[in-house]
Amino acid sequence: MMSDRVIEGALTGQGLRVGIVMARFNSLVTESLLSGALSGLRRHGVADEAVTVVKVPGAWELPLTLATMAETGKFDGLIALGAVIRGDTPHFDYVAGEAAKGIGQAMMKSQVPVVFGVLTTNTLEQAMDRAGAKSGNKGYDAAATVIEMANLLRELKS
Ligand code: INI
User: Which of 139, 150, 135, 118 is nearest to 40 (CA)?
Assistant: First the structure.
């Protein structure tokens, strides 16, 4: 049976302050994710001056940076962007695993939505496909998700 009241976050970005943290490792991929995220935010009405972009060396550095930004109270939502590619490294599982775990922890501890825009793929080609080449742009998708989640949390708390 359908519930009487369904709550979903709106996809309108007006008035929202969004932070993006981008890992520079595999920057061919992550700069494309960043372009997608910025155009997604703009398309949904987030003001350019309400967006802060921070760049860090790699996916390993994402959790601490996001946690620090989340704790400032200056952001309604955050986006993590990165690309961990299995072919590049024997410690793929550590980097990808710790990034995922740490990003989740940053979100739960701060109660600020943090969107997981970190690609974990076997090849560079698979990553490029998901960064605008063939299968959409996960950065653009991340922008829509952060807006939806920021609006949802605002509504749930009001
Ligand atoms: N960082 C990534 O973002 N993606 C990778 O694929 C990657 N590989 O392959 O090693 C990677 N390593 C760097 C890591 O994130 C840290 O920047 C580095 O270990 C310094 O702390």
Answer: 139
User: Does the pLDDT value for residue 2 go beyond 70?
Assistant: no
Domains and CATH numbers, the chain: 17-26+61-144 (3.40.50.960)
Chain-centre distance for alpha carbon 92: 20
C-alpha 95 to ligand 1 mean position (Å): 6
Q: How far is the CA of 80 from the centre of ligand 1 (A)?
A: 14
- The pTM (predicted TM-score) of the whole model is 0.96
Question: Are the beta carbons of 24 and 57 closer than 8 angstroms?
Answer: yes
Q: Which of 22, 60, 64, 66 to mutate to test the pocket of ligand 1 (most atoms within 8 A of CB)?
A: 60
What residues have CB less than 8 Å from 32, skipping those under 6 apart? Answer: 128, 131, 132, 133, 137, 139
44 a catalytic residue: no
